[in-house]
Amino acid sequence: MPEEGFPEAMGYDRTIAMFSPDGRLFQVEYAKEAVKRGITALGIVFNKGVLLATAKVLDELMAPTSIEKVFQVDDHIGAVASGYLADARVLVDFARVVAQRHQITYEEPIDVWTLAKEVGNRMQILTQYGGLRPYGVTVIFGGEDHTGTHLIEADPSGMLFEWYAYAIGRGAQTAMKIFRDEWKPTITKKDAIKLAMDILEKTEKIKEGKKIDLAVVENKKFKILDEEDIKKILK
């Protein structure tokens, strides 16, 4: 019998390795809830590459460089995350090692899907063993390889999905509605930046103390765009 005041399901959320009677892993679901509470992050495939963006919350006494929200994984791959960013940092560091190891072993850059699968496998492993918890973060990888441009989501369960435009975090629902109305295969880099900034302004109410971090992968080159770069593109 369940304890008074506790739902019956509570007995199944004490360990990651136990399914509830209706086939749920509650710790994985809790990890996904952590992602939903994170700051909005998004990715957009445009006609010549892929864009990654998120908002950065800054205190007036905080050094801006101390908060990394958009990550370079390799020369041709970037990532953005929402949820527990400490978990994201660990996963991105793992991804960087995977990319470097592939380059040394095969003497060629790693494919975006190959990299995403390695990270997804790492995340999935933590859904199988007691005494561990899932990574409380979703990571979006954006990159370009010999097969084309890719935008791939890795969620806390280790599941991978490829998108043309996708958002995670607390503004994801609003962002996805805008994407469905506004995204098209011919969207340019300029319009993708405008769309990303518009979404983040609506979902995060960008104001003093917050700024937008943007990066693009174009011609197989990752680049973080500063304010001057963005102004030049938007002219």
Draw up the topology in text:
Layout: H1 26-36, E1 41-46, E2 49-57, E3 70-74, E4 77-83, H2 85-106, H3 112-125, E5 137-145, E6 148-154, E7 160-162, E8 165-168, H4 172-182, H5 189-204, E9 210-218, E10 221-225, H6 227-234
Antiparallel strand pairs: 1-2, 1-8, 2-9, 3-4, 4-5, 5-6, 6-7, 9-10
Task: Describe the structure using short key phrases.
alpha+beta; 5-stranded antiparallel β-sheet; Glutamine Phosphoribosylpyrophosphate, subunit 1, domain 1; 27% strand; disordered N terminus; 235 residues; 6 helices
Explain how this protein is built:
The protein has 235 residues and is of the alpha+beta class. It has one domain: Aminohydrolase, N-terminal nucleophile (Ntn) domain (Glutamine Phosphoribosylpyrophosphate, subunit 1, domain 1), CATH 3.60.20. The protein is built from six helices and ten strands; from the N terminus they run H-E-E-E-E-H-H-E-E-E-E-H-H-E-E-H. Strands 8-1-2-9-10 form a five-stranded antiparallel beta sheet. A five-stranded antiparallel beta sheet has the order 3-4-5-6-7. A hairpin with a 2-residue loop joins strand 1 (41-46) and strand 2. Helix 2 crosses helix 3 (112-125) and helix 4 (172-182) packs antiparallel against helix 5 (189-204). The chain is globular.
- Our Rg estimate from Cα atoms comes to 19 Å
Given the C-alpha coordinates, what overall shape results? Answer: globular
CATH topology, which one? Glutamine Phosphoribosylpyrophosphate, subunit 1, domain 1
CATH class: Alpha Beta
Number of helices: 6
Which series of helices and strands comes N to C?
Answer: HEEEEHHEEEEHHEEH
* Widest beta sheet: strand line-up: 8-1-2-9-10
SSE class: alpha+beta
Going by CATH, the architecture would be: 4-Layer Sandwich
The quaternary state of the protein chains shown equals single chain
Mean pLDDT: 90
Domains counted in the coordinates: how many? 1
How large a portion of the residues is in β-strands, by DSSP E?
A: 25-35%
Largest sheet: 5 strands, antiparallel
Query: Which percent range fits the helix content?
Result: 25-40%
Number of separate strands: 10
Poorly predicted spans = 1-6
User: Going by CATH, what is the homologous superfamily?
Assistant: Aminohydrolase, N-terminal nucleophile (Ntn) domain
Q: What separation lies between the terminal Cα atoms? A: 67 Å
